[in-house]
């Protein structure tokens, strides 16, 4: 009987240790700061992709790239509206025209992009940690 | 309460009325072949006082309070065990990735891992706290061991653990027969067996202790 009591306590102790270790390992593998950084980068990429779409529409309307991102806001067409600001700092993305039909958008990312960050995006953009620029080119629409 | 127990208790009552000592009654019943635990229970149904008529003691019944405590204890056990299993599974998946499942969903995997972590953080402390509270109560009043809520839920837990082990072992044999035993799979079987086996062993010992008392 003493023995049984001892085994019971031992089992409970092992269970407590395993649970604590599993929790610690999980938090160590996915630190909250890392999860937040990934979420912020996802929102950044979302705004970048909005901006890309808006520039595409602008291009199909004007047959030219906008001179700056503010030009997007001056349009009446709602499809040209986009949030071209960083979700965290609210600073506008840097917009650099590379050629007649290509341009770059730059943002400051919290972390390096990783495979599996955005499972529903078939071709997720890769970016480094810190300031990085993504290259885009406008795709003239078939119906234009 | 079964007819047998009623019969036993009315015998004890009459014997006490006739002035027999508790040890004599216990001896007579033991000679008649009654199990010691049942004799003790029957004698325990009456207070050991000098009052001329045997004084009945309150019986353990399915009190709402007991039911609440045991339901909290066992539900946090199930919830915590399930999520601990899922957390350990996620580690196995991470160490031995399955080539058939795309790494595209790594983000979703960490999301579910985060949920399991949160559930374990919440469920286990509550479970241990309530379990300790209950066991202290029982130490103070061993009578509470007979609480029907305790017995039913403990046996139910044994049943669930048995079912889990049966399913787990069947899956193991099924994959063995299919010649398809990967480290990843074996580790998952082991995780389920360890969790269900621990719960099973713990509550089986608990019931045995009770039957000995």
| Separate helix tally of chain A | 3
Order of helices and strands of chain B: HHHEEHHHH
N- to C-terminal separation of chain A?
86 Å
Largest interface: A-B, 27 and 32 residues
Proportion in β-strands of chain A: 5-15%
Runs of chain B with pLDDT <50, length 5+? none
**Strand portion of chain B:** under 5%
Number of strands of chain B: 2
Taking the sheet with the most strands of chain A, its summary is: 3 strands, antiparallel
The total number of structural domains of chain A is: 2
Briefly note the structural class of the backbone of chain B.
mainly alpha
Form type of chain A: rod-shaped
**Count of domains of chain B:** 2
How far apart are the first and last residues' alpha carbons of chain B, in Å? 19 Å
How would you describe this structure to a colleague?
The complex is a heterodimer of chains A (144) and B (213). Chain A is of the alpha+beta class and 144 residues long. Chain A has two domains: 1-30; 41-137, no CATH class. Chain A has helices at residues 2-29, 32-62, 70-73, and strands at residues 94-97, 102-109, 130-137. The longest helix of chain A is centred in the N-terminal third of the chain and has 31 residues, at 32-62. Chain A starts with a helix and ends in a 7-residue tail after the last strand. Chain B has 213 residues and is mainly α. Chain B has two domains: 3-56, no CATH class; 64-212, no CATH class. Chain B contains seven helices and two strands, in the order H-H-H-E-E-H-H-H-H. The longest helix of chain B has 35 residues, at 106-140. The A-B interface holds A 1, 4-5, 7-8, 11-12, 14-16, 18-19, 22-23, 25-27, 29-30, 35, 38, 114-119 and B 80, 84, 87-88, 90-91, 94, 103-110, 113-114, 116-117, 120-121, 124, 128, 131, 198, 201-202, 205-206, 208-209, 212.
